[in-house]
Amino acid sequence: MTIKDVAEFSGVSVSTVSRVLNQHPDVSEVVRGRVMDAVRELHYVPNNSARDLVKTRTDAIGVVVRGAENPFFTPVIRSIENAAEDAGYEMVLHQIQSGAGELEAAAALARSKRLNGLILLGGCYDYTPEQTAALGVPFVCCTYTNRFGRLDPASYSSVSIDDRAEAYRAVQLLLSRGHRAIAVLLDSVSDRSISQLRYQGYCEALRDAGVALDPALVAETVEFEMPAAYERTRRLLAEGPAFSALFAIADSMAIAAMKALSDAGRRVPEDCSVIAIDGIEMSRYTVPTLTTLIQPAETIGAQAVGILAEVLAGRGGSRHLRLETTLRPGGTLGAAETDRKAR
Amino acid sequence: MTIKDVAEFSGVSVSTVSRVLNQHPDVSEVVRGRVMDAVRELHYVPNNSARDLVKTRTDAIGVVVRGAENPFFTPVIRSIENAAEDAGYEMVLHQIQSGAGELEAAAALARSKRLNGLILLGGCYDYTPEQTAALGVPFVCCTYTNRFGRLDPASYSSVSIDDRAEAYRAVQLLLSRGHRAIAVLLDSVSDRSISQLRYQGYCEALRDAGVALDPALVAETVEFEMPAAYERTRRLLAEGPAFSALFAIADSMAIAAMKALSDAGRRVPEDCSVIAIDGIEMSRYTVPTLTTLIQPAETIGAQAVGILAEVLAGRGGSRHLRLETTLRPGGTLGAAETDRKAR
DNA sequence: AACGTTCCCGGTAACGTTCCCGGTATCGTT
DNA sequence: AACGATACCGGGAACGTTACCGGGAACGTT
Asked: What is the arrangement of strands in the sheet containing B157-161, beginning at the earlier edge strand?
């Protein structure tokens, strides 16, 4: 079952078999045929470990993802896998828990598995430039933020939407409908930079509209999970001040919130408008359809491997791609005024 | 950056370094300390390819999944990963498209990567016993069916729910509420054995209740995707006969169907009851909450690696584990009679 | 004092590939 | 007819690691 067996079976040397297997030109058609026949006959499959050992590169890129429970990542990961395959790379997935030291662990994994590069998906790794450089592996960040601006932009690449600006846009949509008491639902700002950025957009939109920020309308959960979002919204409805609109920093949180609203007897959008960011598949099937800013998930994933592939090919330095969302007008937006009049 | 560098740095042989790296007993404390210091100092990370090459086993199991777009698989895969890690295995994921020859490709992958075993997740591979044996890799099937009974039960292991019986139970619940015109929503029977089994349960429940099967109420989609389920339900509502209840063979299809019902102006459960099987997270957040038979996803995944680990350890032959679902009474079930009276 | 044990440690052959280098036909050229 | 070029193939080193075998030191035992 090794290359040697194939060589003996077909009466050639191991070198020749290797050449045939790797599409090298210096081999005659007749020999190539004999070898291929032997391969089929013996059901030979090359040993990847041995192959990777002798070559320096593995032709594999790693995707380290924090919070894979977020359904938004599903299409991103799929598009990464497809794009990687098209570019001749294999994708290996590695989930990490939120916590310190995980990036080092991922880098160690990358080095031990001889991965060519890394795609960091959905997390916040506030490392110093020195620490980042110590990774020793080229990487590109996806749906990720350089918290505190500690990373030197020239030392890495990234592709994502402009979270702050898009959140600003979402909240502005609510404001333009006359809403003033706008609640925001987010997961832990301290741990999640994406959440933090979108929260900033919320704050700035309110400020620019001359609306005072009410801390009691900021509903923060400790984790991203839907049950937490549901429970937090329930508590906000029970204990917090009144609000006519809700901005959720993620579709999945919005869906949980809509359930909480419904359970509390509040209708969407009559009693409360809802808007979010992400555009996960499920958000098309809520009743009413969730109004949300759809991230170009496929493009994000494809561009990430595109940039990484360029870096790996030697050409192309660091790039920071900012993509735009597209608004899907669902049915969760209502006007604040007409609402009041209707009552 | 190799083991040799570490050996030279710490003034010992490569053998000794290897020994301390693999927790072998025959090494003194002082030397162990020196080596560990060197490892840290040089940021040494073992080369997995070389390690795998010399050992026969890789301590990795592959999960080949067909239709990873099904959100039901998410927790299953996660639990497999966790259980694998606990058992000292690494998990590698491999998605396949529906199509022939994919299992062979997966087996080739397993052999080329020297995977210890395979978990086949959510598919139907109707192979002959000879073909199966030719895989050359121990495997256990998960949410999977031995279509046509062609596989010798003694030649493999499996863990899943009893799809036929659970579907029977779901439809029985509808029947017990007085429903007679019960539609069924499923994806391609010809390609998906799970779908086929659940459809069988539907047919048998109707038959045992003395209800004639109406082919016009059998809504089949060509693919599993939610848009297909939505569209098929829409068409059923527009063109098909009246029905007071719907059995969807999967939660995700049920959610899409509920949206179609809503868009058609039909209320759930007043105008139409809905029941499904799976118990995905999203189904808790529909309005009303979906009534469904929850699969023990975590247990399924954990048991799958448990059985595989036993097989790999040499002990334990083939086992076929059938787990039970638990009914979550949501709000999508109504009575047929009271409904009619209310009108 | 000689010997057997135990405890460490080093040398070295594998593991299955790829790749470089060198070698042998074959063939056309002068 | 001798020679260079070309096409094709085999030999063997290397990749980084583990596992086996053997050997030396220290120590207790008779």
From this structure: B90-96, B60-66, B117-121, B139-142, B157-161, B320-323
